[in-house]
UniProtKB/TrEMBL annotation:
SUPFAM superfamilies: Glyceraldehyde-3-phosphate dehydrogenase-like, C-terminal domain, NAD(P)-binding Rossmann-fold domains. NAD(+) binds at residues 8-13, 34, 76-78, 103-106. One of its GO terms (molecular function) is NAD binding. It comes from Bifidobacterium magnum. Its EC number is 1.17.1.8. Catalyzes the conversion of 4-hydroxy-tetrahydrodipicolinate (HTPA) to tetrahydrodipicolinate. Homotetramer. GO terms for cellular component: cytosol. Residues 112-245 form the Dihydrodipicolinate reductase C-terminal domain. It comes from the Bacteria. It catalyses: (S)-2,3,4,5-tetrahydrodipicolinate + NADP(+) + H2O = (2S,4S)-4-hydroxy-2,3,4,5-tetrahydrodipicolinate + NADPH + H(+); (S)-2,3,4,5-tetrahydrodipicolinate + NAD(+) + H2O = (2S,4S)-4-hydroxy-2,3,4,5-tetrahydrodipicolinate + NADH + H(+). This is 4-hydroxy-tetrahydrodipicolinate reductase. Gene3D superfamilies: Dihydrodipicolinate Reductase, domain 2 (3.30.360.10), NAD(P)-binding Rossmann-like Domain (3.40.50.720).
């Protein structure tokens, strides 16, 4: 049995993770901690993998603490910058047998859309990303959209493509944010959960990739897959992206 502790257990995502772990035949819930609880309770003696689903302002400190305590970590909290990732990697160099996994998105549909976007990127002159979420989400753009834009930009650069064409001179912010030259537009609307569209365009044609997660239960198969992978010693150091576990 894989012993799993959940950090952020009372949150919107954390509560689903707790239930998913309880329902998994090969897992058992070790600890369910939330804001104000002492993370020092989580140790290798009681936990094989800790799942961290909190808020961006707390995630880095939580992960660094868990690494220091000798526990492998699966992270679903978004808002990771290059600097934060570097801090995690640096902490893991002192713990070479440990691993941390961070997923911009745990939904299989979103991971595949991101993968397909990387394949399509070199074949289209234009590319933009639209992400749509509920208004309670605290970060914008989403970590998934940032990851998608970065992947598109990297694929375009590898193919020797130039900048995405855009003659706009004054947009009052309507052109959205820009990540590595790719525009991202964030929608926050009551009734939505988690959705992303990747738009590609050439003269006379368009390709649209869309992934929709209508309920948080859609993320649980990906979370459990990550827990199973991180319970062993195959994935040491820092791993980012569920595509690493899907044999794509």
């Amino acid at each position: 049995m894989i012993r799993v502790s959940v950090v952020g257990a009372h949150g919107r995502m954390g509560s689903h993770v707790v239930q998913a772990v309880k329902n998994a035949p090969d897992m058992e819930l070790a600890l369910a901690l939330d804001a104000g609880d002492d993370l020092a309770q989580i140790t290798p003696e009681n936990t094989d993998v800790a799942v961290e689903f909190t808020v961006p302002s707390a995630a880095l400190d939580n992960v660094l603490a868990l690494v220091k305590q000798g526990v492998n970590v699966v992270v679903g909290t978004t808002g990771w910058t290059e600097d934060k990732l570097n801090q995690v990697s640096a902490a893991l160099t002192e713990r070479p047998a440990q691993g941390v996994f961070i997923a911009p998105n745990f939904a299989i549909s979103a991971v595949l859309a991101d993968y397909f976007a990387k394949i399509a990127a070199p074949y289209f002159e234009s590319a933009e990303v639209v992400e749509l979420h509920h208004p309670d989400k605290v970060d914008a753009p989403s970590g998934t959209a940032i990851h998608t834009a970065q992947a598109i930009a990297a694929a375009r650069e590898a193919a020797g493509m130039g900048l995405v064409p855009d003659a706009t001179q004054s947009d009052n912010g309507s052109r959205g944010g820009v990540v590595d030259g790719i525009h991202i537009h964030a929608v926050r609307l009551r009734g939505l959960n988690a959705h992303e569209e990747v738009l590609f365009g050439n003269a006379g044609e368009q390709l649209v990739l869309r992934a929709d997660s209508f309920d948080r239960s859609s993320f649980m198969p990906g979370v459990l897959l990550a827990v199973r992978k991180m319970a062993g010693d195959t994935y040491q150091g820092l791993t980012v992206g569920l595509d690493n576990f899907l044999d794509l």
